[in-house]
Structure formats: C-alpha cells, structure tokens
Amino acid sequence: MKKNYKIEEEIERTLQSLEGIKPAEPTPFFYTRLQARMEKKKEVKTGWHWRPAYAYAFLGVVILLNVWTIYQVSHRSSNAESGEQFANDYGLNDFSGFDTN
Fold first, then answer.
1. 66 neighbors 72 (Cβ within 8 angstroms)
2. In 3-state terms, what secondary structure has residue 14?
C-alpha cells in the first residue's frame, strides 16, 4: 500500500505543478510576419501559371520555323538547275586559272 500512496502523491505533485502553467504567447508581430510569408508564397505560385504559356508559345514558334524550313528546302530542291546556272554565270565551275602542276 505504501507503493500506491507514493504513486498517488507523485501524481498529485505533478498535477499541482501544472496548475501554474500559462498558455504560450507568440512573439510580438508574429501574425504579421506569418501573413507576409504566406503572401510571398502566394505571389510565387501565381507566377508559375504563366510559365506553361511561354513554353507553348515557344513550341509553336519552333514548329512554325520547322514548317517554313521544310517548305524552303523542298522549293529549292526543285530549282537545283538554277544553282548550276548561277555557278556557270559567275564562272565558279571554271578552275582553269589555278596551276595544277
């Protein structure tokens, strides 16, 4: 029984020590700093919504450039004779001015 009495006495002392505890108080301007931090995070998240739009715009420009390049290459290949005509007109095929010895 002495053992139970000591346990009850220890419990009573613990409960009495808890009676003087006050709730924790935040530091001054805690809520103001918290609101500022939350607003800062909110600003970063709103900026993210525009980044996919830039990516899609860039992708569209790349696709348009590819289509334009394919069109230009196919158009030039049908005019291959005009390249030879250009070389002949300006004497680019004539290597007789060089010493071959």
1. no
2. helix
pLDDT at 44 over 90: no
The reply to whether the predicted model has a pTM over 0.70 is: no
Encoded amino acid at 67, one letter: V
Q: What is the dihedral of CA 54, 59, 64, 69, to 10 degrees?
A: 130
Residue 95 per-residue DSSP state: -
**In a 3-state reduction of DSSP, which class is residue 85?**
helix
Residue with the two structure tokens 């030879």 = 84
**pLDDT greater than 90 at residue 62:** yes
Q: Which residue has the higher pLDDT, 63 or 46?
A: 63
Residue 55 pLDDT exceeds 60: yes
Buried/exposed 21-56: b ≥16 CB within 10 Å, e otherwise: eeeeeeeeeeeeeeeeeeeeeeeeeeeeeeeeeeee
